[in-house]
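Subject: mismatched residue count in predicted assembly?

I count 298 residues in my input, but I want to confirm that the predicted structure covers every chain. Input:
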Amino acid sequence: MARTETRTEIVAEPNSHQIIVTREFAAPRELLFRAHTDPELLAQWLGPRELTMEIDQFEVRNGGRWRYIHRDANGAEYGFRGVFHGDPSVDGIIQTFEFEGMPGHVCLETLTFEERGDKTVLRGSSIFQSVADRDGMIESGIRERGFWK
Amino acid sequence: MARTETRTEIVAEPNSHQIIVTREFAAPRELLFRAHTDPELLAQWLGPRELTMEIDQFEVRNGGRWRYIHRDANGAEYGFRGVFHGDPSVDGIIQTFEFEGMPGHVCLETLTFEERGDKTVLRGSSIFQSVADRDGMIESGIRERGFWK
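Triage response: the counts match. Full output below for your records.
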């Protein structure tokens, strides 16, 4: 996908379980959906630029499991995993998300692709099991968590 | 299981995504875990007493799907569904939860079984996608949602 995106907006209200990330892309929603569900496309953009990306598992269906691994230049591995709730579609993707380095801390992610003229607004809501978990994600650097390169 | 439970405590802070329900049972945690993962046991206690319970699907594993239906005396059906995140164990169950009557409104549930002497404290945390969804669940009557008969 051409790098036609505009600014990213991150909203995290104080004392909330939620982080909302929105970003507008000059691309149709079908293409954005594909970029989130086709493993070959996903590997091209997900995660920090300096890490390599390996998709271990990516079952795009209700109950399907997904798992990917980021590796740094020293070989350190950062694994992430979850499951899809419902069948992913252009109307939205609902999935769980867990960093294997902090097992047992899970969040619920909801991605939507909203057409706005010839652009698409991608909205990602993450709901954490506790406000402390949410705050920890912000402190660890939400950019590193891998929303977009 | 004998009806040896004590009081139920429900905590829902204002302006929060979360509901926490705790209840102490005079039973070992392994038995409580079985009551949550063995469909035959589950059907005996889950949901309002005046409704019948049919378990349509119950795959107790990472990515496993679950679905059950409550029916009232007039034949009206109330379906619920979700998926398990991770393998359910006595250390905890993490699952998504959706009422089919309000599709697209999903919450993340975390159940734990904490031994306290010869008793077990069952703790259920539900995190909703929005505070409005959480408030709606409370207003609709959390007892009817089916935590315990």
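The beta strands of chain B are 8-11, 18-25, 52-58, 65-71, 77-89, 92-99, 106-116, 119-128. Marking this ticket as 'not a bug'.
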